[in-house]
UniProtKB/TrEMBL annotation:
Binds 1 zinc ion per subunit. This is Carbonic anhydrase. It comes from the Bacteria. It catalyses: hydrogencarbonate + H(+) = CO2 + H2O. Keywords: Lyase, Metal-binding, Signal, Zinc. Residues 1-34 form the signal peptide. It comes from Ciceribacter ferrooxidans.
């Protein structure tokens, strides 16, 4: 029968479709990983320095009252099954300090651990280990702030022998080493010096905590920094 007749043309067309479909199916079955690899990488697949730069740029916007993140419903569905924080932050529970706002980041961008006085205990340490080991956060930050009430209360206990009620004594116990260290230098402003020292002590513990965090820090996969938020200006300075 003529190769150009309608019957053969129909047969060839069907055959082509079947062969083409089979080929596409085979490619899809053989290369799922390749297809996924072409998708956008997680937002935290960046270097620690790049993550820090993103935070500081965000703070500059916040301090200048030009924040970009104002739609907190955007991307909600995409965040249901996974989170990819670019940084894990130890922050004071002070109501005036909100890391997501201060760094102009949106939901899912920061993994925040908050406690009055931003000190690091074993519970907080476990949270950071989780952020690094399972969420791949490349940056860890200890964020103190000016005029910290928890540090101020600790100074009163150390200097004046004040006794605080309930579990507040536990908080004082964890912040006290920073105050005692700062006091040895006889600073003109003991509160400011103690706040900074409290940040440094927590950052040092994160850097050296074994077996998880110290390994990531030593390899360069994770960076630990200390910083302080100024209540009056909204600006954050690295320590």
């Amino acid at each position: 029968m003529c190769d150009l007749c309608p019957v053969n043309a129909t047969r060839l067309s069907r055959r082509g479709l079947l062969l083409g479909g089979a080929a596409l199916a085979g490619m899809a079955a053989m290369t799922p990983k390749a297809a996924w690899s072409q998708a956008a990488a997680p937002q935290n697949a960046i270097s620690p320095d790049a993550a820090l730069e993103r935070l500081m740029e965000g703070n500059a916007r916040y301090a200048a009252d030009t924040s970009a993140n104002n739609d907190y419903s955007a991307g909600r569905a995409a965040r249901v099954n996974a989170q990819y924080p670019i940084a894990a932050i130890l922050s004071c529970a002070d109501a005036r300090v909100a890391p997501e706002l201060a760094f102009d980041q949106g939901p899912g961008d920061l993994f925040v651990v908050r406690v009055a006085g931003n000190f690091l205990n074993d519970d907080g340490l476990a949270s950071f280990e989780y952020a690094v080991k399972y969420l791949n956060a490349p940056l860890l930050m200890v964020l103190g702030h000016s005029n910290c009430g928890a540090v101020g209360a600790t100074i009163k206990v150390v200097k004046d022998g004040v006794t605080l009620p309930g579990h507040l004594q536990d908080m004082i116990r964890d912040i006290k080493p920073a105050v005692e260290t700062a006091e040895k230098a006889k600073p003109a402003d003991l509160l400011s010096a103690s706040i900074a020292e409290n940040v440094r002590l927590a950052a040092h513990r994160l850097e050296t905590a074994s077996p998880i965090l110290s390994e990531y820090v030593t390899s360069g996969k994770v960076k630990v920094v200390g910083a302080q938020y100024d209540l009056a200006t909204g600006k954050i300075a690295l320590l």
